[in-house]
Amino acid sequence: MRNIFAPLLIASAVFAGPRIEIKDPWVRLVPPVSTMSAAYMEIVNSGDQSDKLVGVETDISKKAEIHTTLMENGTAKMRHVKEIEIPAGGSVKLRPGGYHIMLIDLKDPLKESQKVTIKLKFLKSGEVKVEAPVKSPY
Question: What domain count does the chain have?
Answer without folding.
Answer: 1
